[in-house]
């Protein structure tokens, strides 16, 4: 047997073994790719929660790669947590119904099962922020994280504009939602 044939067989065997040991679910379009072309670094997008019980902000700031997030929300009852939170594909309609925000932002067609593996965030649904960065308990939520797969550039698969952020209680019910909107630019004197 020639050396090139042996090397080819070894390569095929190695690939097959790697695939057999890799039970990670990726999307039909592959893994999410980091976003590197947000139009304005530092541009701010905000979802404002202002219901009778849930108050606060979910802030997204465009970074060189992806988005930096800050959550500062009160009013989600601790006994109903932990809470998942996701970016959903549709904005909250005028009637405020969270059920009408559609599915999670899933640009790479991954689906929700099996659950997201936080140690492999590129394999998760793009909008599954709690799957990638951890659930929240309720009460006063303060959390910061960076997600390289979401974008403020409309041409990117992870675009967050005209979408909603939704909090789900431990039963998966949608309990709070708000639209993600570009923040107005402050006027300079």
Automatic annotation (TrEMBL):
InterPro entries: SOD-like_Cu/Zn_dom_sf. Residues 1-20 form the signal peptide. Keywords: Signal. It comes from the Eukaryota. This is Superoxide dismutase copper/zinc binding domain-containing protein. It comes from Podospora pseudoanserina. The lineage of its organism: Eukaryota, Fungi, Dikarya, Ascomycota, Pezizomycotina.
């Amino acid at each position: 047997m020639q050396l090139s044939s042996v090397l080819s067989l070894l390569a095929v065997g190695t690939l097959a073994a790697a695939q057999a040991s890799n039970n990670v679910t990726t999307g039909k379009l592959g893994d999410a790719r980091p976003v590197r072309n947000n139009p304005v670094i530092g541009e701010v997008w905000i979802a404002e929660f202002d219901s009778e019980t849930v108050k606060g902000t979910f802030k997204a700031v465009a970074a060189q790669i992806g988005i930096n997030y800050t959550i500062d929300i009160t009013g989600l009852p601790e006994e109903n947590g932990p809470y998942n939170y996701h970016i959903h594909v549709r904005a909250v309609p005028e009637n405020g119904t969270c059920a009408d925000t559609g599915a999670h932002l899933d640009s790479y067609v991954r689906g929700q099962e099996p659950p997201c593996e936080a140690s492999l965030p590129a394999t998760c649904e793009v909008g599954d922020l709690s799957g990638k960065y951890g659930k929240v308990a309720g009460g006063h939520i303060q959390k910061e994280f960076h997600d390289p797969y979401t974008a403020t550039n409309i041409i990117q698969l992870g675009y967050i504009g005209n979408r909603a952020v939704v909090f789900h209680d431990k039963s998966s019910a949608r309990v709070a939602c708000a639209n993600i909107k570009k923040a107005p630019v402050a006027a300079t004197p």
